[in-house]
Amino acid sequence: MAEVLTRLSWALRAYLLLAAAWVRVSMAYRASFWMMTVAQFVVTGLDFVAIVIMFANVDALGGFSLAEVAFLYGGAGLCLGIADLLLGNIERLGTRIRMGTFDAMMVRPVSLFAQVASDQFALRRLGRITQAAVVLLWSIVALDLDWTPSKVLMIGYLVACGTAIFTAFFTLGGAMQFLTIDAAEVANAFTYGGNTFAQYPMTIYPREIVKALTFLVPIGFVNWYPSLYVLGRPDPFGLPEWLQFASPVAAVVLGLVAAWAWRAGVRRYRSTGS
Amino acid sequence: MLYVAVAVRAFRRYATYTAATLAGIFTNSVFGVIISYTYIAVWTHNPSAGGYDVSDAVTYAWLGQAMIMTVAVWGGGATDDLAARIRTGDVALDLYRPVGLLGWWLATDLGRAAYHLLTRGLAPTLVGAVLFDLRYPDGPVTWLLFAVSTVLAVVVSFGIRMLVTASAFWLLDDTGVKQLQIVVAMFFSGLVVPLVLFPGWTRDLAMALPWAAFLQVPADIWLGRRAGDEAWWGLIFQAAWAAALLGVCQVVLQRARRKVVVQGG
Description:
Oligomer: heterodimer
Shape of chain B: globular
Strand content of chain A: under 5%
């Protein structure tokens, strides 16, 4: 046990040092950094403007008001944004494999996962995170909910579990690139696609899709079930109430699957060429 | 004939990556499903929003997915290759060729678009047709008008992307300008929300900008929302932007020719 903890803390230390190095790199072109950060803020901002435009034509979407949809949108965006910041560049793994630079990583005495996750760590992704946080804060102000300590805690818990779930999806996408580099785009359907699914109330989807997003691909646990608790709504599909507290279970199970897939992928890796 | 040969080779080049194409089709289909349900939710609350009905809207969602790669709403395509050649200085070779730079790259991009239309365009549309009740053009004339409109959409998009790329002659790196163009294109092409839903004057503005030629005009022709004279006006709108943009491209490239200093030599 102690050995595992030491290894973990080393990996974490390596990750932080590597990430810090990449931050220094990006700060060498300060103007470029700020432009890209602001650009990300605007791009994802337009995403929300699109939802506002929809609400210019209707006053509810799937029975949810603009402020409630903003809460879902902000929650999902924040989780995806943080996960993307932490290890979104794992999708560069395919390029690394193709170029042969992944082999160089393997011989370094540093956790492989920490190296891949911190590869070209992009602090500019704070742009997306800030945008989602602004929308989330606005929705909280606009919603005028009856706040209880448990609801406040639930928001922190939502962000933690949601980030963990997206992190697992990013890792799975990375692990898949050991099998096929070309099909890397499939991962986007789960990460960015999952985020888009989670931005809207599940009531707009048919029952089968909601079940699939609960038990098969646990996107519903990112923010839908915790949000139902915060918004004080009964489950519109009549699914059991304990699901609203089951996000950690989903995050842990998916995390274990992702860890297993990653290890299997690394073990299977036979380098490119000959 | 030369341009046809160039286009055919561009088509073949993209056709090499089957797994990437299949992965892309999967992702397009997932997004098609999400967007369809959001539109269904909107049109359930307001059955005539933007003058569309619900099957118009769902069809629009799938046409949008089909157009993303075909029209290269997110950038990319032949102009990205040219941008790399400008950065490395290889463009000097292109300028030596006894072929116009613009025609050469337009042919390449049309070849690419043809491949993307037949794969990333057609396949998600079939998926959408299986899962949802879609609307189809109501006769051979409409199909033909839609086909012409799609080609014009690619040309307009090419014109804009080419101008972005040409900025690399002066800036050496077009990443910033490219990013900016993608933001504007994603929003004003109506990829996220149909332009018909835009409120008040923003709708008129969006409808007049060149990005409306990417998706909104071809979709309206497909749906029969632009029929008869309206359809022709749509094509004229696209053709006018295509001509104007290609004209500007030609002038800019002429100037760039004088500007080019091959790096390191």
